[in-house]
Design brief:
282 residues; alpha+beta; Double-stranded beta-helix; seven-stranded mixed beta sheet; three-stranded antiparallel beta sheet; 27% strand; globular
Length: 282
């Protein structure tokens, strides 16, 4: 396996690996090491069946099916179909998933470790993913702010605190009443120690964080908004462009990410698997 750096701060591209073939423990160990080192790891031009893609994803840990279950893969519920394609008047997948900076599954008590996307149809324009490095965002905070964040617990719920209009294209994906009842409030540190690397990163300060435990609502919102503005500055960002067959893996514990909107008539389809943590980390 060969690695190429895609951005000065983070993100790696791997070559010399066919993900359709079973990887030895040694080769997968190299992949996993590159994943945690790069935070974003990309394999270009793969040719995978749904079973092969899911088999590779499971090497990183146990998958967690998405709450939007109407767009699960028909054979493999652990795969979520992301697509703006409409067939016979019905959407083929989730069309506008996460078009705002967020962290996958930060609204669950056991959050996500890795998210994997496999690109099947690429639009003529748009459809990129923006990533923001939350290690760097935390490291650059003034010491006084780091001190302020010690022990602060964010209160999370499914949704996007910056857009609560359910029908908006930049709101969180619309849930049914039954799906909403499956979700409640959860707690995560604002400055979270990575469960594998041990480094501290800002955690989900954009997206699902709606409050801070023990802090008045207005004060909490002001601090969260200040942290979001800092955490998503251009200097912390990398923009990933997809080709057909690309597989990307990203580290939810150290990144924010955002999909970019596309023309609804410009076909885009991906498969997604999200891997949950196996233990909580403060």
């Amino acid at each position: 396996m060969r690695l190429k750096r895609l951005d000065r701060g983070f993100a790696l591209e791997a070559s010399g690996v066919d993900l359709a073939r079973p990887l030895s423990d040694g080769v997968f160990g190299e992949v996993e090491e590159a994943f945690f080192a790069g935070q974003v790891l990309v394999f270009r031009g793969q040719k995978l069946t749904a079973r092969e893609f899911l088999g590779f994803a499971r090497r990183f840990g146990p998958p967690e099916p998405h709450v939007v279950d109407q767009f699960h893969h028909p054979e493999y519920a652990d795969i979520l179909i992301l697509s703006n394609v409409v067939r016979d008047g019905k959407p083929a997948g989730l069309a506008d998933a996460g078009t705002y900076f967020h962290t996958d599954y930060s609204y669950l008590e056991m959050p996500a470790r890795a998210t994997l996307l496999y690109s099947i149809e690429v639009p003529r324009a748009g459809g990129d993913t923006l990533f923001a490095n939350q290690y760097a965002a935390y490291d650059d905070l003034p010491d006084a702010m780091k001190k302020t964040l010690e022990g602060l617990i964010g209160l999370h719920h499914y949704g996007n605190r910056d857009d609560l209009e359910e029908r908006s294209r930049t709101a969180a994906s619309l849930l049914s009443g039954e799906q909403k009842r499956k979700l409640g409030w959860v707690r995560h540190p604002l400055a979270r120690r990575h469960p594998v690397t041990g480094r501290t990163a800002l955690y989900a300060v954009s997206g699902s964080s709606f409050g801070i435990e023990g802090m008045p609502e207005g004060e909490a919102r002001a601090l969260l908004d200040e942290l979001r503005r800092h955490a998503t500055l251009q200097k912390y960002r990398y923009r990933l462009r997809y080709g057909v067959g690309d597989v990307v893996i990203w580290d939810n514990a150290s990144l924010l990410h955002s999909a970019t909107l596309t023309d609804p008539d410009d076909a885009r389809t991906l498969w997604r698997v999200t891997i949950k943590e196996t233990r909580r980390q403060s």
